[in-house]
Description:
Layout: H1 11-17, H2 21-49, H3 53-72, H4 74-89, H5 93-120, H6 122-129, H7 139-168, H8 173-177, H9 179-196, H10 200-229, H11 241-273, H12 278-310, H13 315-342, H14 344-359, H15 365-379
Amino acid sequence: MVEIPVSPSDTSFASADKPKRSASVLVAAGILFSRLSGIIREVVFSAFMGVGGAADAFGFATRIPNVLQMLLGEGTLSASFIPVYSNELERDEEEAGRIAGAVATLLALTAATIVVLSWIFAPQITWVIMLGQTDDPRFELTTSLLRVIFPSAGLLVLSAWCLGILNSHRRFFLPYVAPVLWNGVQIVVLGAAILGDWEVDTVAVAVAWAVVAGGLAQLLIQLPTVKKLVPGLRVSLRRSANVDDVLTRFAPAVGSRGVVQISSFVDTFLATALVFGALGSYAAVLPLYLLPISLFGFSVAAAELAEMSRRSSELEAVAARVVPALRRVIVPAGFVTTAYLVAARPLVDGLYGWLSRLFDKGFGTNDVTAVAFVLTAFAI
């Protein structure tokens, strides 16, 4: 481990740059609530829908909107917008507000254009993600669900912009706990479906609308705080050197996220080539798979990014934050990985199997076994 020497005259500088756990704890707390609500949503969804055709159709329909959200949303903005905005915030708050307004306008226009085009060409998009299987009974339902869900991607992209603003102002808890609303709306709809004994196709469509409503709620709960922090925020297409810097960083960030999405599509295509329910099993595992990654990895990274951006020219200060941050990632993630490897089946049965048995719905013993095998593979 490399030690950074600090002379007595530099003690105040070192103290100011010592990594603080409070920020990452707030991020982790917000992510924990949102991920747990996501697991509850997936548990209720799988308990009602099982891992059959309707669950597959819903999984197909969420793939392309997820791509838009990932390409334009949180990860890309973290790499392009937050560093520029955080750095300018230290020097000129008025200019930082102009940057925020211009980026929000560009994001909104781009997302709206893609949403409209995708609504028009939904059958063709479904044809691609289902490998041309137009005679598949899931095809029509997938197309309908895709048209309903797609606007939510634009809302979540703008929600990610809010997250960038709030993180830069050291407001960490709100943007990461806001997805609880997104999950909560879907859980309410699923609860109504269980009590009302709805048909599975009807449930899929209702949950698709809940995805849109939840995305709107997630955005609206953050906007008042953003407006308070950036009082000079204006919708604008004004270009400046800082906005151009964001756009310059945006292209490679989108490219790197694109590689991740290609991998995700490969997963989808492989699931499509297997049996009915394969994609449903994959979707049931994802919340568990993403929980430790987000809770122990992303929480630390998100908390450190804005601070490192502020001190990007001070290499010693940046280096001093890295090793302690890595320790806070590796140790707990190792414990969770071990738990998934050792106890995958009882964990899956405890989450999904009991509720299906309680309501006599679609998640059976074979489904529990299949999902447990998938979770074991993801743990590795």
